[in-house]
Design goal:
Blueprint (H helix, E strand, L loop, with lengths): L1 E5 L4 H4 L2 H16 L3 E2 L5 E3 L6 E9 L4 E9 L11 E9 L5 E6 H20 L6 E5 L3 H13 L4 E5 L3 H15 L3 E3 L3 H5 L4 E4 L18 E4 L12 H5 L2 E4 L2 H7 L1 H8 L8 E4 H5 L13 E4 L4 H18 L3 E4 L10
Parallel strand pairs: 1-7, 8-9, 8-11, 9-10, 11-12, 12-15, 13-14, 13-15
Antiparallel strand pairs: 1-16, 2-4, 3-4, 4-5, 5-6, 6-7
Helix pairs in contact: 2-3, 2-11, 3-4, 3-11
Length: 336
Amino acid sequence: MEILIVNQSEVPQLLPMSECIEVMAEALKALARGSAILPLRPTLWLPEKTGALVVMPAYLGDSDLLGLKVITYFAGNRGTALDTHQGGVMVFDAHDGRLLSLIDATEITSIRTAAVSGVATRLFARPDAGDLAILGSGTQARSHLEAMLLVLQVRRVRVWSKHVENARLFARRESERHGITIEAAETAREAVEGADVICTTTSAKEPVLQGRWLSAGVHINAVGSSIPFTRELDTGAVARSRMFVDRRESALNEAGDFLIPRNEGAIDDSHILGEIGEVLLGQKPGRTSPEQITLFKSLGLAIEDLAAAHHILGKAREKGLGTRIELGGSRRETTT
């Protein structure tokens, strides 16, 4: 049988950030309505944790979507020609099990992660928010800048990286790309002080954002860590915040930014006030005053990858993009 292959260069034109933000909002609402089957992702770590293989299956009942993302994570790829996240998203027919499509996961992960932060920022940032700080200068920093420019009236952008030259390169490249002025900060504190929205997109194992630096009313998107033993935010930053997540079960099992402060006794499970989908549906309140500090802890969900892949598949068919190949799946007749 025939499947459609969508390569890395085709994904961005089929999944523009503006469209992905809306697709992610609908997927998160479906999760909150209870229509998704979403097991926790198994992760196979290589010796010394030099790399990992992650499998993320999902079913979205509202849309009758079935699929999974299989991806590797190699932090050592930073600064090389290879991305840290590589793999594919597979979409299956939920009625007969046929494999319909295989789509590059590197670009889907980049776009949908920032798009979910865009949804969260629309929900939780103050209406007048316009001072943006980005910690990190890699793929997610780039995609988060794009998403934030779509959901905020940005007045100022600051970027920080552990290696200041990387921040300067990012500032020059993205300033030209978007026609704006981006400032490269020498320190993380310099980048975030007075900011209205902060996106942490680093590979840090220890906190890069301190709670004492946060201004009243700031909103934080924390996306860089998705494992229990690393974090980007210190305990003070998390404790000061009204915390929301993409999925409660995932956060309780995978989010070092939450688990480490909990293990220290600074917070408990009730510190997670709700999932984004619950706020979108009006089941839980979001920001309730201008002075509150809000935090969205992103882990990334298979339903986000599946919803993005389904959107890509539909547009690829419509536009005649992708490569069709024969793979199999038909029952072979045997004779005796």
